[in-house]
Write a structure and sequence with these properties.
single chain; alpha/beta; Alpha/beta knot; 2 domains; 43% helix
């Protein structure tokens, strides 16, 4: 794996249930050069250390949080892994797209969230993860073991540079280099600020209906995560929404 992207990827396990899964995950992360492990509401057991196999240090260093909101609070981007698909549970990424997404912005800290082995993530927990990744599998039995799902994600990120020359000496069709053409995406705090600003403007101009069928908060969070805006793009979004506020209310809205 090129660069230091492994230090920017945080694997988050939400209340793992079966003994040994945390240890198996620790070993997998060590296999592929990752060392950032967070646990929600779970204290590793004896079997976890037994299955870690020379990766016990990842368990010892793992951070434990009371809930998912606390575990993702300081992250720039958050991606949930889920086997569920449907109209109310749209899929944004497959494992390969997820790896591409992570490598496209190596300066950002990205959390990969894995739910309980029995019923996954609650709707409230999913709402904390603007992007959703789905691992394609046998439709008749699509549910992977927790450690196996983590293995797929870790391997995709670890192996991506070897399968794509996109991140090293990228060359455009006209023969020029693509390096330096795009600036880094803003961090999580800046993304939250523009997200809240856009919602505040929409609220101020009376955009929302009394009975909304669309969760606009969630929609904007997903939109911004997919867009991965840089500082210039954030400035233009703020400029656009401020101008909308002026046109409707006759005055600007501070940022």
């Amino acid at each position: 794996m090129t660069g230091n992207i492994s230090a920017k990827i945080v694997f988050i396990l939400v209340e793992p249930i079966y003994a040994g899964n945390v240890g198996a995950v620790a070993r997998i992360l060590n296999n592929f050069g990752f060392d950032q492990l967070r646990l929600v509401g779970s204290i590793p057991e004896k079997n976890d250390y037994y299955l870690a196999v020379h990766s016990e240090q990842l368990i010892d260093q793992a951070q434990v949080y009371p809930d998912l909101a606390a575990a993702v609070q300081d992250l720039d981007r958050v991606i949930a892994f889920s086997r569920r698909r449907g109209r109310q549970k749209p899929v944004d990424l497959n494992p390969w797209n997820m790896a591409e997404y992570c490598h496209s912005q190596p300066e950002l800290t990205i959390g990969l969230v894995f739910g309980r082995e029995t019923y996954g993530l609650t709707d409230a927990e999913v709402d904390l993860c603007p992007l959703r990744c789905h691992i394609p599998a046998n439709p008749a039995f699509p549910s992977l073991n927790l450690a196996q799902a983590v293995a797929v994600a870790a391997w995709e990120i670890w192996s991506y540079p070897g399968r794509q020359g996109l991140w090293d000496d990228s060359v455009l069709r006209d023969g020029s280099s693509a390096k330096g053409l795009s600036s880094p995406a803003v961090d999580g705090n800046e993304l939250k600020r523009i997200h809240h600003y856009m919602l505040e403007v929409l609220q101020s101009i009376g955009y929302f209906q009394e009975r909304e069928t669309t969760n606009w908060d969630r929609f904007l969070a997903k939109l911004l995560h997919q867009l991965n805006p840089n500082k210039t793009m954030v400035y233009r979004l703020r400029q656009m929404f401020n101008r909308i506020h002026v046109l409707v209310r006759g005055r600007g809205k501070g940022f």
